[in-house]
Amino acid sequence: MAEWDEPIRKKGFILNFQTKKLQEVHDKHIIEAPRSVDCYEKLNTLGQGTYGIVYRVRDKLTSKEYALKKVKVDKDLFRDGFPVSCLREISILKTCCHPNVVKLKEVVVGKELEKIYLVMEYCEQDLASLLDNLEKPFTESEVKCIIIQLLRGLQYLHDNFIIHRDIKVSNLLLTDEGCLKIADFGLARTFAVPSKSMTPNLVTLWYRPPELLLGSTHHTTAVDMWAAGCILGELLLNKPLLPGKGEIAQLELIIELLGTPSENIWPGFSQLPAIQNFTLRAQPYNNLKTKFPTLSQAGLRLLNFLFMYDPKKRATALESLESNYFKEPPLPCNPTFIPSFPQHRNFKNAPSSSSSKNEHSSRSSSKHKISEMLENLKRKRFD
């Protein structure tokens, strides 16, 4: 064995400073250096997530397309270590493996230390763009298909102690085969029992539950379930269900739809921080039936459970999946029947060698216009 002061030249071993002996390093413990972002060819911008810009890229080796997310990193904060929000997103995505959760392929780096990119599977469209571009609303059969996939993804996350905290239509991606993927984990957190305090005002306003609007710092899986109810309502109406312009306006819309909460139906309601600052107007009626006049009793029952004021009584993802709403006609359609943008499929088809130059020029121009159109629609919807 080498002496303590001699250099270590034996590969596959590391010196244990406690025992002062060589210790074998197994392959499973060796982490390869990340690849460079130059391994990918940038095609176009897809959008902007909570903590970064997302691009459509092509792997130069395999020619396969991916989504590349450039993580926003403050140079000053980076001096104190790797950003916690980025670490959370990477660690959560690396542990997730489910058909309805977007998959992280790898983390790549740029030429500068703070340039970090996440390479994820590419999905051709997001639900927000679909809603903006559909000539006619989703059928109820299509709505059920989409919501079932969302609930399955949420069940997987919640079973693995993950709260997404930013469920909204622009964070739900769809492949050309109609498979829904939950994306953008920039605000996601792991949770434990009992729950720890978290920042209350992170969830996007239109999908924010009443407990967070009233200042609660205890986040549970019920936060995501309220958002799922908002998305179900949005798909059925073909427009946002609760499009408040501020927190007070958001509360007013919720009260107008569901009635005024009270200590009787929501124990602990009167102790929430924000409720001490103002008095909610009295509105004793639940107006879900008026809002959704053609929805079946099973559908209304599901919405009522998703919109329970008391987070402890709100429906879980598993309970929602077992709802009779998904078992009655019209039954959920096959995911491949979900409408999509045919233009997105054209993006993937490079012109053949026999194509004329005019055809190639026409396709390139069309792609550019379609890409600009989709980016403008996304900005218009959520600005």
UniProtKB/TrEMBL annotation:
Entry similarity comment: Belongs to the protein kinase superfamily. CMGC Ser/Thr protein kinase family. CDC2/CDKX subfamily.
Xref: CDD domains: STKc_CDK10
Composition bias type Basic and acidic residues, residue spans: 369-383
Gene Ontology molecular function: any one: cyclin-dependent protein serine/threonine kinase activity
GO-annotated cellular components: nucleus
Keyword line: ATP-binding, Kinase, Nucleotide-binding, Serine/threonine-protein kinase, Transferase
InterPro entries: CDK (IPR050108), Kinase-like_dom_sf (IPR011009), Prot_kinase_dom (IPR000719), Protein_kinase_ATP_BS (IPR017441), Ser/Thr_kinase_AS (IPR008271), STKc_CDK10 (IPR044093)
Domain of life: Eukaryota
Coiled coil: none
GO process annotations (BP): regulation of macromolecule biosynthetic process; regulation of mitotic cell cycle; regulation of primary metabolic process
Protein name: Protein kinase domain-containing protein
The UniProt record lists the keyword ATP-binding: yes
Residues of the Protein kinase domain: 40-326
Region annotated Disordered, chain positions: 342-383
Signal peptide (from-to): none
Residues annotated to bind ATP: K69
